[in-house]
Write a structure and sequence with these properties.
This protein is α+β, with helices and mostly antiparallel strands and 139 residues long. The protein has two domains: 45 residues, N-terminal domain of TfIIb (Single Sheet), CATH 2.20.25; 92 residues, 2-Layer Sandwich (GMP Synthetase, Chain A, domain 3), CATH 3.30.300.20. Helix content is 32%, strand content 29%. It is built from three helices and six strands; from the N terminus they run E-E-E-H-E-E-H-H-E. The strands form two sheets. Strands 1-2-3 form a three-stranded antiparallel β-sheet, with no helix packed on it. The protein has a three-stranded mixed β-sheet with strand order 4-5-6, covered by helices on one side. The longest helix has 24 residues. The chain is globular.
């Protein structure tokens, strides 16, 4: 692979109850464990929220790329990523993702084909394929 861009972030403090920042200053957030996982909760970011934001933005970009190839109108499209975390049978934890893809300016069949093509192109989809459950919904 020929790497075109590299992102670097640093975690400090107490992991999920710590802080993350990048070298350039674009990302500078306190993190807290959600109340549902036994943490203090509150209006803070957490790793699953950051993953959902990254996956939805990346998938939406992939959708734009494939739509240009197909000459399809994906203006006003939206992608939402829902990321869940839970215990697995091995004593560890796993993630599950649900992607909701909304493409209002094409028919349902075209929307599904575009979403599936984006799923084949998106780096997040390629990284997670075979590792975690990803449900692709065209809504």
């Amino acid at each position: 692979m020929d790497i075109a861009y590299t992102a670097v972030a640093h975690a400090t403090g107490d992991g999920r109850n710590g802080h993350v920042a990048d070298d350039g200053g674009a990302l500078d957030l306190d993190l807290r464990v959600p109340a549902e996982l036994g943490g203090p909760g509150g209006d803070y970011a957490n790793p699953e929220l950051l993953f959902a934001a990254g996956y939805s933005a990346c998938f939406h970009s992939a959708l734009k790329v494939v739509s240009m190839r197909e000459k399809a109108d994906v203006s006003d499209s939206q992608v939402s990523a829902t990321v869940g975390i839970g215990a697995n049978d091995s004593g560890g934890f796993e993630l599950a993702v649900e992607l909701d893809v909304h493409i209002p300016n094409v028919d349902e069949d075209t929307a599904r084909k575009l979403a599936e093509a984006a799923h084949a192109v998106c780096p997040y989809s390629n990284a997670t394929r075979g590792n975690i459950d990803v449900v692709l919904n065209v809504v």
